[in-house]
Amino acid sequence: MSDTRNETVPEIPAATDGYDVVVVGGGAAGLNAALVLARACRRVAVVDAGQPRNAPAERMGGFLSRDGVSPAALLETGRAELAGYGVDLLDARVDHVEPVPGPDPAFDVHLAGGPALRARRVVVATGLRDGLPELPGLAERWGRDVLHCPYCHGYEVRDRPLGVLGTHPGAVPQALLLRQWSADVVLLAHTLELSADDRAKLAARGVRVVEGEIKRVVVTDDRLRGVELADGTAVPREAVFLFPHLVPRDALLFGLACERDAQGWVTTDQVGRTSVPGVWAVGNVADPRAQVVTAAGAGAAAAFALNHDLVDEDVERALALAAA
Protein backbone atom coordinates (compact mmCIF):
# COMPACT_ATOMS: atom_id res chain seq x y z
CA MET A 1 0.00 0.00 0.00
CA SER A 2 1.12 3.48 -0.78
CA ASP A 3 0.97 6.38 1.65
CA THR A 4 -1.64 9.10 1.41
CA ARG A 5 -1.05 12.25 -0.62
CA ASN A 6 -3.02 14.17 1.96
CA GLU A 7 -5.60 13.62 4.68
CA THR A 8 -8.57 14.69 2.55
CA VAL A 9 -11.00 11.95 1.55
CA PRO A 10 -11.52 12.29 -2.21
CA GLU A 11 -14.92 13.00 -3.67
CA ILE A 12 -16.29 9.78 -5.09
CA PRO A 13 -17.94 10.02 -8.51
CA ALA A 14 -21.72 9.96 -8.51
CA ALA A 15 -21.91 6.69 -10.44
CA THR A 16 -20.78 4.30 -7.71
CA ASP A 17 -22.90 1.31 -8.67
CA GLY A 18 -19.67 -0.45 -9.46
CA TYR A 19 -16.60 -0.67 -11.64
CA ASP A 20 -15.40 -3.39 -13.93
CA VAL A 21 -11.89 -2.83 -12.55
CA VAL A 22 -10.34 -0.84 -9.73
CA VAL A 23 -6.61 -0.32 -10.16
CA VAL A 24 -4.72 0.36 -6.93
CA GLY A 25 -1.55 2.30 -7.68
CA GLY A 26 -1.00 4.99 -10.29
CA GLY A 27 2.51 4.27 -11.54
CA ALA A 28 3.39 3.10 -15.04
CA ALA A 29 1.98 -0.40 -14.54
CA GLY A 30 -1.30 0.71 -13.05
CA LEU A 31 -1.90 3.57 -15.48
CA ASN A 32 -1.12 1.47 -18.54
CA ALA A 33 -3.44 -1.29 -17.32
CA ALA A 34 -6.17 1.31 -16.83
CA LEU A 35 -5.55 2.80 -20.28
CA VAL A 36 -5.95 -0.53 -22.09
CA LEU A 37 -9.06 -1.39 -20.08
CA ALA A 38 -10.61 2.03 -20.71
CA ARG A 39 -10.01 1.60 -24.44
CA ALA A 40 -11.84 -1.73 -24.12
CA CYS A 41 -14.83 0.30 -22.88
CA ARG A 42 -14.53 -0.95 -19.31
CA ARG A 43 -15.52 1.23 -16.38
CA VAL A 44 -12.27 1.81 -14.49
CA ALA A 45 -11.09 3.67 -11.40
CA VAL A 46 -7.49 4.27 -10.38
CA VAL A 47 -6.74 4.90 -6.72
CA ASP A 48 -3.31 6.37 -6.14
CA ALA A 49 -1.56 7.57 -3.00
CA GLY A 50 1.00 9.58 -4.94
CA GLN A 51 4.42 8.39 -3.78
CA PRO A 52 6.04 6.57 -6.72
CA ARG A 53 9.30 4.75 -6.14
CA ASN A 54 11.18 6.77 -8.75
CA ALA A 55 10.04 10.19 -7.51
CA PRO A 56 13.59 11.24 -6.43
CA ALA A 57 14.96 10.71 -9.94
CA GLU A 58 15.21 13.72 -12.26
CA ARG A 59 14.70 11.72 -15.44
CA MET A 60 14.03 8.26 -16.81
CA GLY A 61 16.26 6.40 -19.21
CA GLY A 62 15.72 3.59 -21.69
CA PHE A 63 12.01 4.22 -22.36
CA LEU A 64 11.50 4.66 -26.11
CA SER A 65 10.00 8.11 -26.88
CA ARG A 66 10.19 9.01 -23.17
CA ASP A 67 13.95 8.87 -22.69
CA GLY A 68 15.03 11.73 -20.44
CA VAL A 69 11.48 12.59 -19.35
CA SER A 70 10.95 13.15 -15.63
CA PRO A 71 8.91 10.49 -13.80
CA ALA A 72 6.43 13.16 -12.70
CA ALA A 73 5.87 14.30 -16.29
CA LEU A 74 5.18 10.74 -17.44
CA LEU A 75 2.55 10.23 -14.74
CA GLU A 76 0.95 13.61 -15.39
CA THR A 77 0.64 12.80 -19.08
CA GLY A 78 -0.74 9.35 -18.31
CA ARG A 79 -3.36 10.67 -15.92
CA ALA A 80 -4.48 13.25 -18.48
CA GLU A 81 -4.85 10.53 -21.11
CA LEU A 82 -6.93 8.39 -18.74
CA ALA A 83 -9.19 11.30 -17.85
CA GLY A 84 -9.93 11.66 -21.56
CA TYR A 85 -11.30 8.12 -21.56
CA GLY A 86 -13.51 8.72 -18.53
CA VAL A 87 -11.36 6.85 -16.00
CA ASP A 88 -12.03 7.99 -12.43
CA LEU A 89 -8.74 9.08 -10.82
CA LEU A 90 -8.87 9.14 -7.02
CA ASP A 91 -6.03 10.53 -4.91
CA ALA A 92 -6.39 8.30 -1.87
CA ARG A 93 -5.00 5.33 -0.02
CA VAL A 94 -6.66 1.93 -0.08
CA ASP A 95 -7.00 0.54 3.41
CA HIS A 96 -8.03 -3.00 2.47
CA VAL A 97 -9.82 -5.03 -0.17
CA GLU A 98 -12.66 -7.30 0.84
CA PRO A 99 -14.07 -10.13 -1.30
CA VAL A 100 -17.83 -9.98 -1.91
CA PRO A 101 -19.59 -13.36 -1.58
CA GLY A 102 -21.16 -14.63 -4.79
CA PRO A 103 -20.70 -16.97 -7.73
CA ASP A 104 -18.38 -14.57 -9.58
CA PRO A 105 -15.39 -12.62 -8.27
CA ALA A 106 -16.23 -9.20 -6.83
CA PHE A 107 -14.55 -6.93 -4.31
CA ASP A 108 -15.12 -3.92 -2.11
CA VAL A 109 -12.06 -1.67 -2.27
CA HIS A 110 -12.12 0.31 0.98
CA LEU A 111 -10.55 3.77 0.90
CA ALA A 112 -8.84 4.97 4.07
CA GLY A 113 -11.25 7.24 5.90
CA GLY A 114 -13.82 6.92 3.14
CA PRO A 115 -16.26 4.68 1.32
CA ALA A 116 -15.71 1.46 -0.61
CA LEU A 117 -15.62 1.00 -4.37
CA ARG A 118 -17.31 -2.14 -5.73
CA ALA A 119 -15.27 -3.85 -8.46
CA ARG A 120 -15.52 -7.01 -10.49
CA ARG A 121 -11.75 -7.23 -10.66
CA VAL A 122 -8.83 -5.60 -8.83
CA VAL A 123 -5.37 -4.79 -10.16
CA VAL A 124 -2.76 -4.17 -7.46
CA ALA A 125 0.09 -2.03 -8.77
CA THR A 126 1.37 -0.55 -5.51
CA GLY A 127 5.06 -0.99 -6.27
CA LEU A 128 7.83 -1.32 -3.72
CA ARG A 129 10.06 0.83 -1.58
CA ASP A 130 13.85 0.83 -1.47
CA GLY A 131 15.22 0.06 1.97
CA LEU A 132 18.55 1.89 2.31
CA PRO A 133 21.47 1.14 4.64
CA GLU A 134 21.59 3.39 7.69
CA LEU A 135 24.58 5.43 6.62
CA PRO A 136 24.59 9.23 6.93
CA GLY A 137 23.86 11.06 3.70
CA LEU A 138 22.46 8.19 1.64
CA ALA A 139 18.77 8.95 1.85
CA GLU A 140 19.24 12.62 1.01
CA ARG A 141 21.15 11.80 -2.18
CA TRP A 142 19.04 8.82 -3.25
CA GLY A 143 18.12 9.00 -6.94
CA ARG A 144 20.55 11.88 -7.52
CA ASP A 145 24.14 10.65 -7.13
CA VAL A 146 23.45 7.70 -4.82
CA LEU A 147 21.98 5.24 -7.30
CA HIS A 148 20.88 1.67 -7.83
CA CYS A 149 20.25 0.70 -11.45
CA PRO A 150 23.07 1.11 -14.00
CA TYR A 151 20.59 0.75 -16.86
CA CYS A 152 18.56 3.64 -15.44
CA HIS A 153 21.39 5.98 -14.43
CA GLY A 154 24.69 4.58 -15.71
CA TYR A 155 24.78 6.60 -18.91
CA GLU A 156 24.41 9.89 -17.04
CA VAL A 157 27.48 9.13 -14.86
CA ARG A 158 29.54 7.34 -17.53
CA ASP A 159 33.31 7.81 -17.49
CA ARG A 160 33.23 9.29 -13.99
CA PRO A 161 34.83 7.91 -10.81
CA LEU A 162 32.16 5.55 -9.44
CA GLY A 163 31.86 3.63 -6.21
CA VAL A 164 29.83 0.60 -5.20
CA LEU A 165 28.94 0.23 -1.53
CA GLY A 166 29.45 -3.25 -0.12
CA THR A 167 26.24 -3.19 1.88
CA HIS A 168 24.53 -6.09 0.08
CA PRO A 169 25.63 -9.40 -1.48
CA GLY A 170 24.58 -7.97 -4.84
CA ALA A 171 27.39 -5.40 -4.67
CA VAL A 172 29.94 -7.58 -6.45
CA PRO A 173 27.79 -8.26 -9.55
CA GLN A 174 26.80 -4.61 -9.51
CA ALA A 175 30.44 -3.50 -9.56
CA LEU A 176 31.28 -5.94 -12.35
CA LEU A 177 28.35 -4.58 -14.36
CA LEU A 178 29.20 -0.91 -13.75
CA ARG A 179 32.63 -1.41 -15.28
CA GLN A 180 30.73 -1.23 -18.59
CA TRP A 181 30.10 2.49 -17.97
CA SER A 182 33.37 3.61 -16.41
CA ALA A 183 37.01 2.56 -16.26
CA ASP A 184 37.23 3.92 -12.70
CA VAL A 185 35.04 1.75 -10.48
CA VAL A 186 35.82 1.06 -6.82
CA LEU A 187 34.10 -1.47 -4.60
CA LEU A 188 34.05 -0.24 -1.01
CA ALA A 189 33.98 -3.53 0.84
CA HIS A 190 32.42 -2.20 4.08
CA THR A 191 31.22 -5.32 5.97
CA LEU A 192 30.93 -7.50 2.88
CA GLU A 193 32.99 -10.70 2.97
CA LEU A 194 34.57 -11.19 -0.42
CA SER A 195 35.51 -14.66 -1.58
CA ALA A 196 38.69 -15.42 -3.49
CA ASP A 197 36.53 -15.90 -6.58
CA ASP A 198 34.93 -12.47 -6.04
CA ARG A 199 38.33 -10.82 -5.77
CA ALA A 200 39.62 -12.59 -8.87
CA LYS A 201 36.64 -11.44 -10.95
CA LEU A 202 36.90 -7.88 -9.70
CA ALA A 203 40.61 -7.75 -10.41
CA ALA A 204 40.15 -9.21 -13.87
CA ARG A 205 37.50 -6.62 -14.61
CA GLY A 206 39.68 -3.78 -13.36
CA VAL A 207 37.56 -2.96 -10.30
CA ARG A 208 39.64 -1.85 -7.30
CA VAL A 209 38.62 -3.03 -3.82
CA VAL A 210 38.90 -0.59 -0.90
CA GLU A 211 38.79 -2.24 2.52
CA GLY A 212 37.28 -0.70 5.63
CA GLU A 213 33.85 0.13 6.97
CA ILE A 214 31.99 3.07 5.52
CA LYS A 215 31.20 5.97 7.84
CA ARG A 216 29.26 8.30 5.54
CA VAL A 217 29.00 9.78 2.08
CA VAL A 218 30.53 13.22 1.75
CA VAL A 219 28.48 16.02 0.19
CA THR A 220 29.52 19.63 -0.37
CA ASP A 221 27.79 22.33 -2.43
CA ASP A 222 24.92 19.92 -3.09
CA ARG A 223 27.18 17.41 -4.82
CA LEU A 224 28.49 14.04 -3.71
CA ARG A 225 32.27 14.24 -3.37
CA GLY A 226 33.11 10.79 -2.09
CA VAL A 227 32.91 8.30 0.76
CA GLU A 228 34.53 8.58 4.18
CA LEU A 229 35.63 5.40 5.92
CA ALA A 230 35.54 4.77 9.65
CA ASP A 231 39.31 5.31 9.89
CA GLY A 232 39.00 8.75 8.29
CA THR A 233 40.16 7.71 4.83
CA ALA A 234 38.43 9.66 2.06
CA VAL A 235 37.63 7.92 -1.22
CA PRO A 236 36.78 10.54 -3.86
CA ARG A 237 33.82 9.51 -6.04
CA GLU A 238 31.34 11.44 -8.13
CA ALA A 239 28.53 8.90 -7.80
CA VAL A 240 28.01 5.74 -5.81
CA PHE A 241 25.77 2.76 -6.38
CA LEU A 242 24.25 0.40 -3.88
CA PHE A 243 21.86 -2.52 -3.90
CA PRO A 244 18.84 -1.60 -1.73
CA HIS A 245 16.66 -3.95 0.28
CA LEU A 246 13.56 -4.26 -1.89
CA VAL A 247 10.33 -4.16 0.12
CA PRO A 248 7.13 -4.75 -1.88
CA ARG A 249 4.03 -2.79 -0.87
CA ASP A 250 1.99 -5.97 -0.83
CA ALA A 251 -0.23 -5.71 2.25
CA LEU A 252 -3.37 -5.62 0.11
CA LEU A 253 -2.41 -8.83 -1.66
CA PHE A 254 -1.70 -10.79 1.46
CA GLY A 255 -4.77 -9.39 3.15
CA LEU A 256 -6.54 -11.32 0.38
CA ALA A 257 -4.42 -14.43 1.07
CA CYS A 258 -2.63 -14.40 -2.29
CA GLU A 259 0.08 -17.05 -2.45
CA ARG A 260 3.76 -16.16 -2.05
CA ASP A 261 6.91 -17.73 -3.44
CA ALA A 262 9.86 -18.95 -1.38
CA GLN A 263 11.30 -15.41 -1.24
CA GLY A 264 8.02 -13.95 0.02
CA TRP A 265 6.92 -12.25 -3.21
CA VAL A 266 3.41 -12.66 -4.58
CA THR A 267 3.15 -15.41 -7.16
CA THR A 268 1.56 -14.56 -10.50
CA ASP A 269 1.34 -16.10 -13.92
CA GLN A 270 2.86 -14.41 -16.98
CA VAL A 271 0.02 -11.88 -17.21
CA GLY A 272 -0.17 -10.95 -13.54
CA ARG A 273 -2.97 -13.23 -12.38
CA THR A 274 -2.58 -14.14 -8.70
CA SER A 275 -3.81 -17.26 -6.92
CA VAL A 276 -7.01 -15.42 -5.90
CA PRO A 277 -9.57 -15.30 -8.72
CA GLY A 278 -10.19 -11.74 -9.82
CA VAL A 279 -7.00 -10.28 -8.31
CA TRP A 280 -4.04 -9.25 -10.47
CA ALA A 281 -0.63 -7.89 -9.47
CA VAL A 282 1.66 -5.98 -11.84
CA GLY A 283 4.80 -3.87 -11.72
CA ASN A 284 7.30 -3.78 -8.89
CA VAL A 285 4.89 -5.22 -6.32
CA ALA A 286 5.26 -8.52 -8.20
CA ASP A 287 8.52 -8.06 -10.13
CA PRO A 288 11.39 -6.23 -8.38
CA ARG A 289 13.37 -6.09 -11.63
CA ALA A 290 10.73 -4.21 -13.61
CA GLN A 291 11.79 -0.81 -14.92
CA VAL A 292 9.23 1.80 -15.92
CA VAL A 293 9.00 0.57 -19.51
CA THR A 294 8.64 -3.09 -18.53
CA ALA A 295 6.16 -2.24 -15.78
CA ALA A 296 4.03 -0.39 -18.32
CA GLY A 297 4.19 -3.41 -20.61
CA ALA A 298 3.19 -5.72 -17.77
CA GLY A 299 0.21 -3.49 -17.06
CA ALA A 300 -0.89 -3.73 -20.68
CA ALA A 301 -0.47 -7.52 -20.77
CA ALA A 302 -2.49 -7.88 -17.58
CA ALA A 303 -5.24 -5.69 -18.98
CA PHE A 304 -5.57 -7.77 -22.14
CA ALA A 305 -5.89 -10.98 -20.16
CA LEU A 306 -8.15 -9.42 -17.54
CA ASN A 307 -10.55 -8.13 -20.18
CA HIS A 308 -10.80 -11.61 -21.70
CA ASP A 309 -11.54 -12.92 -18.22
CA LEU A 310 -14.40 -10.41 -17.93
CA VAL A 311 -15.67 -11.32 -21.41
CA ASP A 312 -15.79 -14.99 -20.39
CA GLU A 313 -17.84 -14.02 -17.33
CA ASP A 314 -20.10 -11.80 -19.44
CA VAL A 315 -20.76 -14.70 -21.82
CA GLU A 316 -21.60 -17.06 -18.98
CA ARG A 317 -24.05 -14.54 -17.53
CA ALA A 318 -25.66 -14.04 -20.96
CA LEU A 319 -26.06 -17.80 -21.40
CA ALA A 320 -27.65 -18.10 -17.96
CA LEU A 321 -30.14 -15.33 -18.79
CA ALA A 322 -30.96 -16.89 -22.16
CA ALA A 323 -31.66 -20.24 -20.50
CA ALA A 324 -33.85 -18.75 -17.78
N-to-C order of helices and strands:
EHEHEEEEEHEHEHEHEEEEEEHEH
Uncertain residue segments: 1-9
Query: What share of the residues does DSSP label as strand, in percent?
Result: 15-25%
Helix content: 25-40%
Number of folding domains? Answer: 2
Gyration radius, rounded = 23 Å
The CATH class of the largest domain, by name, is Alpha Beta
Number of strands: 17
The coarse overall form would be elongated
Distance between the termini: 43 Å
Domain FAD/NAD(P)-binding: 19-298
Keywords: Flavoprotein, Oxidoreductase
Protein name: NAD(P)/FAD-dependent oxidoreductase
InterPro entries: FAD/NAD-bd_sf (IPR036188), FAD/NAD-binding_dom (IPR023753), Ferredoxin-NADP_redctase_2 (IPR050097)
Q: What would you note in describing this structure?
A:
With 324 residues, this protein is of the alpha/beta class. The chain has two domains: 19-129 and 245-323, FAD/NAD(P)-binding domain; 133-241, FAD/NAD(P)-binding domain (3-Layer(bba) Sandwich), CATH 3.50.50.60. Helices cover 27% and strands 24% of the residues. The chain has helices at residues 28-39, 71-84, 138-141, 150-153, 171-178, 196-205, 251-255, 292-323; strands at 19-24, 44-48, 88-91, 94-99, 107-111, 116-124, 128-131, 146-147, 162-165, 185-188, 208-210, 214-220, 223-229, 234-236, 239-241, 245-248, 279-281. The strands form four sheets. Strands 1, 2, 3, 4, 5, 6 and 17 form a seven-stranded mixed β-sheet that branches. The chain is elongated and about 80 Å long. The model is unreliable at 1-9 (pLDDT under 50).
